Amino acid sequence: MSETKSVLNTLIIGSGPAGYTAAIYAARANMEPVLYTGLEPGGQLMITTDVENYPGYPDGVKGPEMMDDFRKQAERFGTEVNYDTAVKVDFSGPVHKVWTEGGKELHAHTIIISTGASAKWLGLESEKRLANKGVSACAVCDGFFFKGQKVAVVGGGDTACEEAVYLSKLCPEVHMFVRRDEMRASKIMQERVMKASNITIHWNTETDEILGEDEVTGVRILNNQTGEKKEIEISGFFVAIGHVPNTQIFKDWLDMDDTGYLIIKPFSTKTNIEGVFASGDAADKIYRQAVTAAGTGCMAALDAERYLTDKGII
Known about the structure:
Helix 6 (187-195) links the parallel strand 12 (173-177) and strand 13. The chain is of the alpha/beta class. Strands 1, 2, 5, 6, 7, 8 and 19 form a 7-stranded mixed sheet that branches. It is elongated, with a radius of gyration of 21 Å. Residues 1-5 have low confidence and may be disordered. The chain has helices at 16-28, 63-76, 125-129, 139-142, 158-168, 187-195, 290-310, and strands at residues 8-13, 34-36, 50-51, 61-62, 80-82, 86-90, 96-100, 105-113, 117-119, 135-136, 150-154, 173-177, 199-202, 205-211, 218-223, 229-233, 236-239, 243-245, 276-278. Helix 1 (16-28) runs parallel beside helix 2 (63-76), helix 1 (16-28) runs parallel beside helix 7 (290-310) and helix 5 runs parallel beside helix 6. It is 25% helix and 26% strand.
């Protein structure tokens, strides 16, 4: 058997909407994709209860159920799905090498990266216990469930401001907890927050505890200057202190910004390495939605197909 035949056409690193969509398109194009799910098969949607904003699910769908549908569709067209994690890569040659936690060494002509990003959390026990019971890291995803209710947002950057402004259009009261006496957010985002009459900013404030047993009923905050504690009645608690892209294993090979998001060429999913494509939240710090991730997964598969065709591999 020649060396070429032992090289995969397309290796997809990571699952979730981007990875599975890339797999569906690649499999239907006879690229014989092999997918490695990573540490969190299905990505952030596996910890999301109700998804109501993804087209094609008129009654909504549970995040894990939706990802199961994506996986089944990818497998139906012949994608080989492996439950293992990539831990090391070598993109120095025309054939790309990837090593997995399970000890496999894989060679591929094209790589599609869909490793996603993970939300940063405060680290409170109550935050973990009440996840999806009032605690969320995405106002665009979950804000609708709190329409007409009182909510809180933690953070002082652009994301926190965007979440607060978004929620202010749905909720009568939005409390914003900022750890310092000023925000890190851009001036324009700060101005939007200040203009919203129903957003109350609590400066020098940290979250002491999220209150509630089976659902969020309130929050206890701490003024880190005076030491004063206060309880506020809320139903929704949104953590907006940033995301961490899961791209560490690529840092010696791929261009990324100062926060670790992969840099792709405009109107494509191409990275700085030929034959390596990036999709989903690993390369998107702006939209971070299941539907946009799926869209870039499609793009990555099409870009990989063109690459393989141009090289005469398929």
